[in-house]
Design a protein that fits this description.
With about 280 residues, this protein is of the alpha/beta class. The chain has 8 helices and 15 strands. Strand 13 and strand 14 form a beta hairpin.
């Protein structure tokens, strides 16, 4: 049906998410900025690289991973997702398949145990991957894996294991893209803005104002769904799992998600396990 397409929860046509890597101390301030502006996102952790609990970083060190006790206190009840970044932050594309799978699964197992939740998302360390890595992630139960590619658009991902971002926060087009996203009107498809980076870069570049300006501008808008990476993945895949009759007028939702649709200038919601009749 040419005029049937997905909307996000509550009938919104836009969604926004963030993805930040390494589990560094600067995530604390980043999370505060996100929370103040109603943003949600995902923090990608390498569980084999926590420093010792009594470790003190040298003066002037900017990239400072948090020890486990601090990371657990920061992320556990934050409302944000945690995801895999490789147990040893290895370049998976350079490892034999068994070693790459082991690094992913060891991180997944540790994060699930230590944070008492299922972990299904990932960001590639160094942004490095190949077809062999993508294939092994499927057997590791990884639902999506973020790359470092910038799409500079708001398209819904087609390949979740080669997931691009809209842009990095240092991208010179960041605020232009933010304004296009906030002020534009999606036509015949929903939009997703995906921002990524490392929070220690704000200290390194002395530019916390970049994320503060972005968050204040894009946050707390009634027409945007603010969600974690996995929430967006699961919603989109639930939409793609809908069953349609041959004439396109009956829609059955076999999933556990309530799905919102646009059809002929009207908005419809299909409850889990329910079927609706379109005009």
């Amino acid at each position: 049906m040419p005029d049937l397409y997905m909307l996000f929860p509550e009938g919104k046509a836009k969604a926004l998410t963030l993805s930040y890597d390494d589990g560094v101390e600067q995530d604390i301030l980043l999370m505060k900025i996100m929370d103040q502006n109603g943003l949600k996102g995902t923090f990608n952790l390498s569980s084999g690289l926590y420093p010792p609990e009594d470790f003190r970083w040298p003066e002037g060190q900017i990239h400072r991973r948090m020890p486990f006790s601090q990371a657990k206190a920061v992320y556990t009840h934050s409302g944000h997702e945690i995801a895999i970044h490789g147990y040893s932050h290895a370049d998976l594309a350079m490892l034999p398949s068994a070693a790459a799978a082991g690094d992913v699964m060891k991180d997944k197992e540790a994060l699930e145990r230590d944070y008492d939740r299922m972990v299904r998302g990932m960001a590639y360390a160094y942004g490095r991957y190949n077809d062999q890595v993508v294939d092994l992630l499927k057997s590791c139960g990884v639902a999506y894996a973020r790359t470092t590619h910038a799409s500079h658009n708001f398209e819904i991902p087609q390949d979740w294991l080669r997931l691009p971002a809209t842009c990095h926060h240092k991208d010179e087009k960041l605020m232009d893209l933010a304004r296009q996203f906030a002020e534009g009107t999606p036509r015949m498809r929903p939009w997703l803005f995906y921002l990524w980076g490392h929070s220690y870069e704000f200290d390194m570049d002395q530019n916390w104002h970049v994320i503060e300006e972005f968050a204040a501008y894009i946050g707390k808008r009634d027409d945007i769904w603010y969600a974690t990476n996995i929430e967006i993945h699961d919603y989109v895949e639930a939409y793609r799992s809908l069953h349609c009759s041959a004439d396109g007028k009956r829609i059955y939702n076999p999933t556990c998600h309530k799905i919102w649709l646009h059809h002929k200038s009207s908005i419809y919601a299909v409850d889990p396990g329910a079927e609706i009749q379109l005009p």
